[in-house]
Fold:
Amino acid sequence: MAHVDNPKGMTVSVGDQLDHYRIEDVVAAGRAATTFRATDVLTNRTVALVIPNPEIEADPVLSGRFQREEEIDKALDHPGLIKLIEKHARESASGHSYLVREWFDGISLRELLAKGKLAPERAIPITVSICEIADYVHSHGVVLRDLEPDLGRGA
Structure:
């Protein structure tokens, strides 16, 4: 069972409840954070819960980057970007800092590409969409540092 430890020694595992979010599954585990599929038990809505990894929360510089990500998320509103629903500071009842984002059912571009070469009539609209999103983000003063085929809405 996957879990995330925070600086206060608490562990988050699949099946646990973090504030009013029940952890359902690990979606992705990266250098900076782990993303879980969770259910808001108040609304029964499926969400993505992004919890920074312990070394991120423990480092003031890296923790600041996580906080800036939340500020950027609030400032951007584009149909191709997953939206921030809310943020919880480490001082919340759970003892964890985390972001709550909307959940999107779909596959990543990486998963789509793993199925084989895309026909031009499929690849071109995807490429144009990615460029439009990148242009929107850049026009708001944000530099994309890690544009990867696992990020974004899904194909």
